[in-house]
């Protein structure tokens, strides 16, 4: 549930390499604005002006952290990288905002990261044992130390990144900027998306293709799982020593995270969500009068369900666009009613009707129950809930803040029990087999570990999720 249930992806990255000094900061600003849905906790930009790095980052949305004067103060470099963040590893603090800037004997380096390392704690303890000091609690700093350590014995920064990839494990889509080069690297499993774009002689890198549209660039291709792409002197070089597999992109990119107008691994996100709705109807048909979606990521699946079933599609909710990720909730009673501040039910759409409500997921179930009650209070005669993903039964270790099994409702209750708990007349989830078919034409495999407990890479048995992390964030639900 976008901004409601409390399920978040870690972040988004954007980078530019231009052959001439210009408006690199403004370009990255526009790219980050397009990626704001991937992280609303903090953001930052580092500009490279002929080897001089200028940075600005802070807690807040892109349009509140940056204004015209701030962008001007970053200078007119020809390279820049930016980042928007939610925290999975690391707490919510300004110290954890990215990109990180590192200064060492071979020059400055800036790094931005999307994903989550499964061995971050192990590497951090090793570095701390050698006397290295950490200024944040996120695993991006672990990556920066790993690359920096390798750089001392390497001829180039890209060779250091290549060696570091043998040591870091888990999910990472990286942007690394040196005085002369812009580098992108993606983990061999390709858990998180990373794309290459171009406009004339200017190169762009972004977590999603929608960011290229915002700066007038054209999508060129996806960075391959395991690939290191190096842009220097306007030329692109690809290092593929870590390539070889098809990849295991997080399927929730298609279900929830990515913007509908993005294309990931050759598959359109909007089309994938429509297909999820089609399959959901085939798996869980129901007699009803109207189909509605929970904003925002439930809307496309609801449209697909309507198309497949012939049941009319309607606007059942209005979302308050001025509510950020958190807002002041002084008392428990106000917290209980907070969903009413974020969502309003359209009584004219649902009153007296048998309603099918489509949402992307149920995590703990509390918010789902509140939304069902909203529809009841607005006059819905029946509420049939359909979910465009399978039940969560396992945590995610690769950059999504899916909680421990103790807090996942599907680990404690059957589907019929969840249905009763949230107050619905019926409940149906998309099957695991169904969710793997939504991204038709995608040139990659899909990770469904949070739905199956089976992961593409080894996760030590019976180890709590927080053992992988330097610090767990408190992403509490409404």
Kindly describe this structure.
- It is a single chain.
- By secondary structure, the protein is an alpha+beta fold.
- The chain has two domains: 11-245, Glutamine Phosphoribosylpyrophosphate, subunit 1, domain 1, CATH 3.60.20; 263-455, Rossmann fold, CATH 3.40.50.2020.
- It has 17 helices and 23 strands.
- A seven-stranded antiparallel sheet has the order 3-2-4-1-10-9-11.
- Strand 12 (228-232) and strand 13 (235-239) form a beta hairpin.
- Helix 4 (120-129) packs across helix 5, helix 5 (139-151) crosses helix 6 and helix 9 packs across helix 10 (298-309).
Number of helices: 17
Identify the CATH class of the largest domain: Alpha Beta
What do the pLDDT scores average to? 89
Oligomer: single chain
Contiguous runs where pLDDT drops below 50 for at least 5 residues: 1-6, 325-332, 467-478
User: Can you identify the CATH superfamily of the largest domain?
Assistant: Aminohydrolase, N-terminal nucleophile (Ntn) domain
Topology, number of strands: 23
Described by strand count, sense and barrel closure, the largest sheet is: 7 strands, antiparallel
Task: Report how far the terminal alpha carbons are from each other.
Answer: 11 Å
